[in-house]
Design goal:
Layout (H helix, E strand, L loop, with lengths): L2 H7 L9 H32 L18 E12 L16 E8 L2 E5 L6 E4 L3 E7 L1 E2 L2 E2 L5 E8 L2 E9 L5 H21 L1
Antiparallel strand pairs: 1-2, 1-9, 2-3, 3-4, 5-8, 6-7, 8-9
């Protein structure tokens, strides 16, 4: 028989002789991963501190009116308007979660199980559009509903993805017509 066949026929691998070195490498790698995780967490908290000037998020009114549209899906985060990588983490806006959206005449109600809910008054809505990415989440073209709204001194883009992506177009039309209607009414006064 040839030596190659004999090597393949062996049933056991070589024994580990230096257990201390192996354990040392495993412990070192675990400490390195823990350090990286801690640094990421500190960066997240630091970003929240820098965004401390953002006012508290409004809650939904007691009587928001009848629902024009409803949607369930995912909330992918909020960014400074026009800067899709500048994530806003203050007040829990950076936390990805499931979402239930309801559009009424009063505004956009964002209910997030496991994260803080918020409400965008109709007067604060600026634009709705289809996009492909926000805050580190990239989808196919038009796979993300992005709503631009004003909060305090800042314009914010919030990204949502419906469980049924075909709904996105109706949301863009409804929000933009709502904005155009309120702008037209304000101009007539």
């Amino acid at each position: 028989m040839t030596p190659v066949i004999l090597l393949a026929a062996e049933k056991e691998s070589a024994e580990v002789t230096d257990w201390a070195a192996r354990i040392g490498w495993v412990v070192g790698l675990a400490l390195f991963v823990a350090l990286v995780y801690w640094l990421m967490r500190e960066g997240w908290k630091w970003r929240g501190t820098l965004q401390g000037d953002l006012p508290e998020l409004p809650g939904a009114p007691d009587e928001p009116g009848a629902a024009k549209l409803t949607m369930t899906g995912r909330y992918h985060g909020s960014t400074t308007a026009g800067q899709w990588l500048d994530r806003i983490v203050a007040h829990g806006l950076g936390t990805r979660s499931r979402v239930e959206l309801t559009l009424t005449d009063a505004g956009l109600d964002v209910v997030r199980p496991g994260a803080s809910d918020f409400f965008v008054p109709a007067a604060a809505l600026r634009e709705a559009r289809l996009d492909k990415g926000i805050a580190g989440k990239v989808l196919t073209e038009g796979g993300l509903l992005v709503v631009t709204w004003a909060h305090g001194e800042r314009l914010i883009d919030s990204g949502f993805r419906s469980d049924r992506a075909a709904e996105h177009g109706a949301w863009v039309d409804a929000i933009n017509s709502m904005i155009n209607t309120s702008t037209t009414e304000g101009a007539e006064r």
